[in-house]
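Notebook B, p. 112. Complex prediction, attempt 2.
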Amino acid sequence: MKNTNDLARRDPNHLPARAEQARATLSPPVDVYENGDELLLYADIPGVTRDEVALHFANNQLTIEAQRKPNDQGKLLASEFGPTNFVRSFSVPPGLDADKVTAEFREGVLCIHLPKSAAVKPRQIQVRGG
Amino acid sequence: MFSVYNDWDQHFAELRQQMANLLEEFDGGWAANPSVFGGTRTWPRVNVADTGEQLVLCAEVPGLSNKDIQVSLEHDVLTIAGERKIDAPSGYSVHRQEREGFKFVRSFTLPSKVNAEKVNATVTNGILTIALPKTPEAQPKRIEVRAS
């Protein structure tokens, strides 16, 4: 009852895990801070340039993506890191102002500012005397 | 009878795949985020390459500038040291803190003699790159084969 597809499936070299070994996919470590005005995110993405970092924000979903290219300079004597896809997604709470999201990339650290919209910002309410 | 063996083969192939996926996930997760697994890792991670004329060491040091890193060379031992501090920005509350602070020292015995005067170290986009030009004696030499 077995057909040729099963044979292909049994061959360890056809397993998807082998095919994708060359480029690792990692979740970068992230810090999340908040104050009255904004959410602030820091992510470690060493070895990419500013142009290689992509940031998507839609439907309260924030996605960070970056691709680190292989460094093929000479013969490697020791290798503890290599070409990497950095991917990380977050569900962010509603009430953020998507148009005012800003990000900067410095020293391999991505910093994202997510300002809160006026409706959810803490407000000082004045107490008036009668 | 044969179909029973075929099934076993397939089960093992599936098991093998699951194990491979699991290990890959573990490697990825651990490398990015060792504290979740209760471990520590060597920091920073380093690549060393030999281009022929020079040795090139690259280290992942996100968040560090040239002022935070000390590089020294003593005979054939290269040492990098420094500290990364992670402080919450003032006035912010902390939701999540996965990026870790480190105090690090790593030493490497170089496989060939280098010209200490011409060592060049830079930090760009969170990668420390140290270029160590080899002494003329240590550089690869091309030996011509002559016809007799």
